[in-house]
Design goal:
The chain is α+β, with helices and mostly antiparallel strands and about 250 residues long. Among the domains are: about 5-80, Nucleic acid-binding proteins (OB fold (Dihydrolipoamide Acetyltransferase, E2P), Beta Barrel), CATH 2.40.50; about 130-150 and about 190-250, no CATH class. Helices cover about 35% and strands about 25% of the residues. The chain has helices at about 85-100, 110-125, 130-145, 180, 195-205, 215-235, 240-250, and strands at about 5-15, 20-25, 30-35, 55-60, 70-80, 165-170, 175, 190. Helix 2 (about 110-125) packs antiparallel against helix 3 and helix 3 runs parallel beside helix 6. The chain starts with a strand and ends with a helix. The protein binds zinc ion (ZN). Zinc ion (ZN) binds near residues 157 and 176. The site of zinc ion (ZN) has 7 residues, from loops.
Amino acid sequence: MSYIKTKGIVIKEVNVGEADKIITILSGEYGKMAVVAKGARRLRSRLSACTQFLCYSSFLLFKGRDLHKINSCEMIESFSEAGNDLVKLTYAAHMADLIYDTVQENQPATKTLKLFLNTLHYLIKTDRSPGLVIKIFELRYLCILGYAPYVKGCINCLNETFEGLSFSFKKCGFVCNNENCVSIDPFMYKISPGTARAMHHIVYSSMDKLFNFELSKPVLAELSTIVDRFLREMLEKDYTKLKFLRDIEKI
Ligand SMILES: [Zn+2]
């Protein structure tokens, strides 16, 4: 029997039988992997800690055709304390959903894993605004998936500016207020220079500086409007977990 050794984070868990679980892990080398954790739901199981949602561990797996089986595992870092905060848990579950839907099996996902681990750190282990942290994740993740918008300036005349811009969903990028440029899309969304700068930073920043900024409430609201719609149009799916958060905010 052959073995696979890899590090991965649990992005989904499904209970099966009396005490087993099938977990999905995101691994840098192998992408999405479905793994059987025999007896993981037993109280004293040596697999119980590492197979929790959002645990990042080093796994030794028996290789199977469709499903792998855990031989042993050792926890590296756990983000499962998100379970104590409904808002943070919902954001983390939303990211896990996005990743589950878009990462393939047997395809390296090193950048996705790094972005997910970094985002979880800022979301769960710091007091940064979860609303901003999640928008940074979503836009940067779309770039990893190959949907980077044009954010250097105007996509039509290529004028490099952050002033007087709108975002065109049709053209996937910024458009300036020059007469010839405005006419390329009648349904653009006007954005402030702050939003333009934030989007440029999220698309181009190195990973270690990605989360190093704050936004005022109106700028974050504008960024959220753009990123929410861009995500929906690019992935052609409405992710409903965050709608639940908007609903409880209204109460
Ligand atoms: Zn222009």
